[in-house]
Write a structure and sequence with these properties.
With 172 residues, the chain is α+β, with helices and mostly antiparallel strands. The chain has one domain (2-122): Aminopeptidase, CATH 3.40.630.30. 31% of the residues lie in helices and 38% in strands. The chain contains six helices and seven strands; from the N terminus they run E-H-H-H-H-E-E-E-H-E-H-E-E. It has helices at 12-19, 22-28, 36-45, 50-53, 101-116, 131-139; strands at residues 2-6, 56-64, 67-80, 85-92, 121-127, 143-154, 157-167. Strands 1-2-3-4-5-7-6 form a seven-stranded mixed sheet. The longest helix has 16 residues, at 101-116. The chain is globular. The mean pLDDT is 90.
Amino acid sequence: MITLRAVEPDDIDLLYNWENDTDNWKVSNTITPFSKYYLEQYILNTQNDIYTEKQLRLMIELKESNKLHIIGSVDLFEFDPVNKKAGIGILISKEFRNKGFATKVLNILIDYCFKTLDLHQLFCNILEDNNESVKLFANSGFEIVGLKKDWIKYENKWLNEYLLQLINPLNK
């Protein structure tokens, strides 16, 4: 069973490893490492109030039999309660990828955003060559609405980035 929960101080080592894994930097637009101190301060000082902070990070838990695994995290960012929209980012730990967990998480998050937060739309930004992520979001109803050319500079190359959007079908 997959569940989402708030970030806890015990998550610091996982977050530290994920945030400082340079393989993740290409998709997260990260260019410098995070210190444990910085991440600890984030965890200790966040109120988990999306209306105040305009963002929300949740941890993804997988319960199998009697074992509990933290398999990733999801972010809502650029939360705009006036225009009822937010961006979504998902990270699944390498050893849990390609097992359908991201699809389950995305559907849980879409449901939360549309039914609980009453958002009108969600969006995400995905590099053009990230076929797995484009497919993930497209299969959950997101549409490519734009291509930002030469948007991200990575290893001395310019990469294009798609903008995908999902309008709440309950509000149409």
